[in-house]
Design goal:
Blueprint lengths: L11 E9 L2 E9 L6 E2 L2 H13 L18 H13 L6 E3 L2
Parallel strand pairs: 2-4
Antiparallel strand pairs: 1-2, 2-3
Length: 96
């Protein structure tokens, strides 16, 4: 497993979320359990880009939204979805 470039802690494989408008795309990343730094291997980035292309979301640039560490990611996505739904924004979770 790779080491974090910031703190040299061993990275862990986790899910992360990319948010684009009303769509949330989950994808695999390497995340540092100490400082939260996120890295993608070449394979992870390739899979992520292909998923975005299949969903017609790829425009040659990408962004990653970090979720708070103290909640499991699924619970956080549900919380965000409910909050935004109360404001009239319907989220579509893809890749769970």
């Amino acid at each position: 497993m790779d080491k974090c470039p910031r703190c040299r802690t061993e990275m862990k494989i986790e899910q992360d979320a990319y948010v684009r408008g009303d769509v949330i795309v989950l994808h695999e990343v390497e995340r540092c359990p100490e400082c939260g730094e996120i890295m993608l291997t070449e394979e992870q980035m390739g899979d992520f880009v292909e998923k975005l292309k299949r969903l017609n979301l790829w425009e040659g640039e990408c962004g990653i939204v970090k979720l708070r560490k103290n909640l499991p990611e699924y619970e956080k996505l549900v919380e965000v979805s409910r909050t935004l739904e109360g404001k009239g924004v319907k989220l579509k979770v893809i890749g769970m």
